[in-house]
Amino acid sequence: MMEQMTIGQLAAAAGVNVETVRYYQRRALLAAPSRPNGGIGRYPAAALTRLRFIKRAQSLGFTLEDVQALLSLDDGRNCAAAREIGEHKLAEVRDRLQALRVLEAALTDLVTRCSTARRKVTCPLIASLLTPEASSA
After folding, report:
1. Helices (H) and strands (E) in the chain, counts
2. Which residues, other chains included, contact 71 with Cβ-Cβ below 8 Å and sequence gap of 6+?
3. Phi/psi at 42 (5° precision)
4. What tens digit of pLDDT does each residue of 42-54 get?
5. Least packed by Cβ within 10 Å: which of 10, 12, 25, 94?
């Protein structure tokens, strides 16, 4: 692995766009690189580790605000606070899963009704979406 990287090398190594790196810098999630005498900025290997952390956290559903909070807790003494953030995210995911299960059941019912509604002029799925009570399902 390279010791020092340009922004393009860093972005490529992390699998992100250069503008993503710049955006994370503006959000103070990633430090700006050192620029010796106005030269090309060079990022240390730790920047790649941090960038990968951000992307992994996002893939688990953490917002950038969550990521910033987690990064601020990374001193080995704040595991309870980090766990609390994780528990909050887990509760959100479970709520979304429950909502998706309800949605799945409603769509399963509509698709089943569509497949059994032969020779009807109106499709049950379309008809149910046209009725006001469908939006509350």
Report:
1. 6, 2
2. 29, 50, 53
3. -125, 130
4. 999 999 999 999 9
5. 94
Structure tokens at 22: 């710049």
CATH 1.10.1660.10 for domain 1-62, yes or no, is yes
List Cβ neighbours of 14 (8 Å cut-off, separation of 6 or more). Answer: 21, 48, 51, 52, 55
Residue 35's Cα: distance from chain center in Å?
A: 31
Biggest distance spanned by C-alpha atoms of the chain: 78
Q: How far apart are CA 67 and CA 63, in angstroms?
A: 6
CA distances (Å), origin 110, targets 98, 127, 128, 129, 136: 19, 10, 8, 10, 14
**Residues 77-96: pLDDT tens digits?**
788 888 999 999 999 999 99
Question: Domains of the chain: which residue ranges?
Answer: 1-62, 73-137
Query: What is the predicted pLDDT for the residue at 64?
Result: 94
Residue 23 to residue 9: CA distance in whole angstroms: 16
According to DSSP, the residues that pair with 43 across neighbouring strands are 5
Place of tokens 């509509």: 110
